[in-house]
Amino acid sequence: MASNFYDNPSSKLQLVGVTGTNGKTTVASLLYQLFKKAGYKVGLLSTVKILVDETEFKATHTTPDSVTINGYLDKMLEEGVDFCFMEVSSHGIHQKRTEGLIFAGGIFTNLSHDHLDYHETFAEYRDVKKVFFDGLPKSAFALTNIDDKNGGFMLQNTKATKKTYALKTIANYKAKILEKQFSGTLLNINGTEVWTKLIGEFNAYNLLAITATAELLGLEKLQILTILSELKSVSGRFQYIISDDGITAIVDYAHTPDALKNVLETINDIRTGNEKVISIVGCGGDRDATKRPKMAHIASQLSNQAIFTSDNPRTENAQAIIDEMEVGVSPENFKKTLSVLDRRQAIKTACRFSETGDIILIAGKGHENYQEINGERFYFDDLEEVANCFNQLKKN
What we know:
The structure is a single chain. By secondary structure, this protein is of the alpha/beta class. The protein contains 14 helices and 19 strands. α11 (292-302) links the parallel β14 (277-281) and β15 (305-308). α2 (24-37) packs across α8 (201-216) and α13 (343-353) packs across α14 (382-395). The model is unreliable at 1-10 and 115-119 (pLDDT under 50).
């Protein structure tokens, strides 16, 4: 058991928790990348994977149960890991999976519609997130996105040192987007320009949180910004490939209304305006049903063509989920929508609709390489499927 970590606050291992609706995986994973490149031994507890320095373990939950967390922290102590970056979900906080852990810092990314099947109300969801910051020790830092309307709320009762980051308001760490392309983004962070391979305003926030955290943990500013330009996108987060015909396909984990809106607005911001944007969107079964019409509304509003399909229907009827999504489509946008129940066929349909310069967004599953249907998981990889489609188009 990792008794050393719990009993000794001065343990060499520094644990940082990342919470919020969107961006947890990206922030935690990029912090892992940054600190590895800076020469440290690093741990990662994320939705995508668990890493004890360079040894990888399969992730099953955003925040594992307390015994599992304890076990991984023990391995990290044995390996001499310096820093561990951990996603902290609302479920994990509410079920006390992180209770008793000594955090060196906490990061708040943003708060939007999600998990209302579990928390019932948005206020309850917000308040659970705040519990994490309320429990941070005086020795820790609490870093919050102050542009988010709940950013200041998270800091109200914390004993930790309060720090803020923002794109739009006064903050300790401030960034401005100077240039944006599909190849990357030029940012000004606290007066210094830096080019990054990551794309979109949402990633500007993520990079700002990473920069602030690294500085608060003692890294030099120049070293941080140098490494920032080398960081690569996280699996299933705005990953894209371009066909020989010049069609761009983007795979993104966006599975909340806010995340889908962010990704589509980023695409529309970068595009020249002549291309079509075709989005493929589904919603998971046995999860918050109230976001289904909202997701469909956003997809149809911000795309030239929206294709509704299955995601992980789990124990629900996939067509019934799509029917609930379609309720959110405005009458003027309905002609832009199409329902293709089979996800593979939906991707093929998008490819057939596409011409040179067009952009296909495949949203909702990101890094996941399966579909869960009636209790079974079947292998399915969005990026692989669209690559196969592109190859088929090439042969034809």
